[in-house]
Amino acid sequence: MNNKDLQLSRRGFLVKSFSAISVVYVIPNLFTHAEAAKPLDQKVSSSTKWAMAVDVDKCVSGCTACVDACIEENGLYGFDRPETDSQWIRKIKIQDIKTDKVTTLPMMCQHCENPPCCDVCPTGASFRRIDGIVMVNQHTCIGCRYCMMACPFKARSFVHENLTEQLTNAPRGKGCVESCNFCANRIDHGSDTTACEEACQKEGHQAISFGDLSDSESRVNKALRKKDHKRLRADLMLKQRVTYTGF
Hints:
With 247 residues, this protein is α+β, with helices and mostly antiparallel strands. Helix content is 28%, strand content 17%.
């Protein structure tokens, strides 16, 4: 092989190498863009408005069906360290200081229309899809935890541990923030229910209703018509897509 042939060979190798590198870089961004496909052949649309209504009167104290279902759905196995284990939904008790009434309710990401977590994120990893689902891009999250401090509902968790038993439908990573995403993987495959709602229904409590606000016959709209619902910390004007009734 003469010098000319050798130069051409090297040039061809470099072109192929840079092409391969470009492909590896571009593909992840295609699948982590805010406008991901739904259900894999349709784009996310602003005509769909996912929301959840919680009837606190039907939420049973001591029941953890919604929490257990979320853990199983997203592979949120613990390390026996409650203070650092991820929780995308948790049961909390609140007490009315005037009447001393104690209420039990599920707390998760409230999927705000004006999400403070997105406002403070320096990389855009925290984002709100045009259908209303607030999510975290694991590829661009740098673990600064500004969003955790900004969230008034303490709805986000930080992954402190190395993870080995992950589910393909819920990719997670050490050093990243995560939170409830309204079971986006299910939604993007054509479902209209979350794991927590499904579990609550199976228990016969019917405390959680999920659906599309644009559909007048959706479960969430039917629940909203039955009772007046309100947002937690409405004074913050975050316009959450999760509302509550019964307290």
